[in-house]
Amino acid sequence: MRELPELFSGFRSETIEGDGTDIFCRIGGEGPPLVCLHGFPETHAMWHRIAPALAARYTVVLPDLRGYGQSGMVGAGADVTAYSKRAMAKDVVAVMNRLGYSSFRVAGHDRGGRVAYRLALDFPEVVEKLALLDIIPTAAMWDGITVQRALAAYHWLFLAQNEPMPELLIARAPIQYLDYTMAAWTKSGNLTSFDERALAHYRAFYKQTERMHATCEDYRAGATADWDDDRADQEAGRKIAAPTLVLWGSHGIPGHGIGPLRIWEDWAENVEGHEIESGHFLCEEAPDETLAALLLFFEEPEADEDAPQ
């Protein structure tokens, strides 16, 4: 990948072995560990507006999910579970263990939010606090498909189609597809909310045919393995144990209907949250409000001076 604009001054770059593939990370700051996971069709670069402030309080780890950005891809012939959220969650655990952390806070946006809540369900001892940005659970999304939702979230059905249909169509104009998709999910309906340097990261990644294919595999896993895993948790009565924050955009897809907070109350034991005036890309469209909510949620509780020592 050609030289990309620098967005994280003071952060270091590392490529760390995950659970079967290498994971590219930017790491910065000091303090308790906080993992921030990106969504589609972006990379770790989506955190550039708020990561420096988070790094003033936390050791911030920004991975590219497998198949995305500069992380490794799964070899040809792998089945759809290779891009499941369970597989991606195992990557995160492996990376953090190799960095010396057995537990951590985690924030996830979009597909990264799905990895984050799968992480909290599969590895409850690992996730201290969980923040989910502009998503509802995968099972709730599929179970709640209506004509209106299918039109708004058509990419869920399109990208999950059998190979090579979506790949063939997107490959004709990948950058145009990426730009159109991202603009359509903003409150403004255009790309003015994004830093051109961040867009350069997203475009450089997405125009690589094999990586664009990996994102389709991500959505195919969402329509199969991820949905199955969610249903298994529901049937077993498992809930997210970690304190959970849910944030969503006023003009995002999840905000339609009964609202994300009400849905997540059925999935998490201790959940709070609120709407932010934004489209789907909270960290780039409304960075100040998103940062404030995350800092308040993740902060350490003050010690009680009167408590016995």
TrEMBL record:
Keyword tRNA processing (UniProt): no
AB hydrolase-1 domain ranges (all copies): 32-287
Record's keyword annotation contains Ion transport: no
Keywords, in A-Z order: Hydrolase
Molecular function GO terms recorded: haloacetate dehalogenase activity
InterPro entries: AB_hydrolase_1, AB_hydrolase_fold, Epox_hydrolase-like
Annotated EC: 3.8.1.3
PANTHER family: EPOXIDE HYDROLASE
Name under which the protein is recorded: Haloacetate dehalogenase
Protein species of origin: Amorphus orientalis
